[in-house]
Design goal:
By secondary structure, this protein is an all-beta fold. The chain has one helix and 22 strands.
């Protein structure tokens, strides 16, 4: 840290000694290392004597800086010994300081400060501006909860809740999801599954319910892990990410699984205890049907093995379909199917 100052000679001086001339009792100190050497080392460099009238010292208000609201900024310099100092706010009346050549300020809006100083009869001035930015958005909480639906034909949904503060320049939020395998390896690619407009207040609470019926990754194997996060998007395009939350769904929690989906050639339908399978087009017409007596048979492009039914989809036109499965216990479960 540079320490500088001005000493105006009175005449007759022979030496200039730098150091601390107070005893331990009257010396303020702080221990920065609990063990080892106690003390400080000072280096003197470029020591010189100048006539003040031969080298006018211009006012130094410091460099312009940018802070977030609530923070402080140092203005001016550490130089002392100046004859006359006056600080004031630009375009405002009154003096805010007349003693210190530098000090800390904590403005709440963009503020410029003017330093006017006099040294040996020479007066100069300088201006420094402190730009104040709003605090960046902060996620103070984010939760993800699995909520099975009472309707047996649907798998359930995920309820996401998050709370933010300092939401000044935020335009909207993206809700994103990624899938992973049962070993817990998170998927690399997050996909946008929803968009929520920002409230723009200092404190905000949000909820988003995502119905994953028909949209689970396939095949499920022994289960699936889903990862969720929230992305805030500012009006200038800047983004901020929440932490990532995980939802684990076991094989038993899933009503019906279809893969690959979308599909071109074949599709696999997994559901325990299948009694009847129907494929329904967007007009509500049943374009495919298998009943219990034929589910165990191989033929006509169908095959049931280990609760997985394979269907040849080349017989379907491109579009959106609903797969409806009736189980042996009377439950009806549905799933979306896209044929490309």
């Amino acid at each position: 840290m540079r320490v500088s100052g001005i000493f105006k000679a009175q005449g007759g001086e022979q030496y200039l000694t730098l150091g601390n001339f107070k005893d331990d009792v009257n010396t303020a100190f702080a221990i920065v290392r609990p063990t080892g050497y106690y003390g400080a080392v000072y280096y003197g460099d470029d020591v010189a004597v100048y006539a003040l009238d031969s080298m006018p010292l211009k006012a130094d208000a410091g460099r312009d800086t940018t802070i977030h609201i609530g923070d402080s900024a140092f203005i001016g310099s550490l130089t002392n010994g100046i004859d006359s100092i006056k600080w004031q706010v630009l375009n405002a009346n009154g003096t805010i300081d007349s003693i210190r050549s530098g000090f800390w300020v904590h403005p709440t809006i963009n503020t410029c400060y003017v330093l006017i100083q006099t040294v040996n009869g020479f007066t100069s001035s300088d201006t420094v501006c402190v730009n104040v930015l709003p605090l960046p958005l902060k996620f103070i909480s984010f939760t993800a909860q699995l909520q099975p639906t009472p309707n047996p034909s649907k798998e359930g949904n995920v309820k996401l809740d998050w709370v933010t503060v300092n939401e000044i320049n935020v335009s909207y939020f993206y809700v994103q999801r990624s899938s992973g395998n049962p070993a817990g390896q998170q998927g690399r690619d997050f996909q946008i599954i929803g968009k929520v407009n920002a409230n723009g207040a200092n404190y905000n609470e949000y909820s988003f319910i995502y119905d994953f019926n028909g949209l689970l990754p396939s095949p499920l194997g022994e289960g699936v892990r889903l990862y969720y996060r929230i992305v805030s998007v500012d009006k200038d395009g800047k983004t901020n990410f929440s932490e990532v939350k995980q939802i684990s769904i076991s094989k038993e929690q899933v009503a019906i699984s279809i893969y690959p989906n979308p599909t071109k050639d074949v599709v696999n339908i997994r559901c325990k205890g299948m009694k009847e399978v129907r494929v329904i087009n967007q007009l509500g017409q049943v374009v495919y049907k298998e009943i219990a007596s034929s589910l165990a048979m191989t033929g006509s492009g169908t095959n049931l093995r280990n609760d997985v039914l394979t269907i040849n989809t080349k017989q379907f036109t491109k579009g959106l379909y609903i797969v409806q499965v009736t189980t042996t216990n009377g439950e009806v479960k549905t799933q979306k199917l896209i044929v490309e």
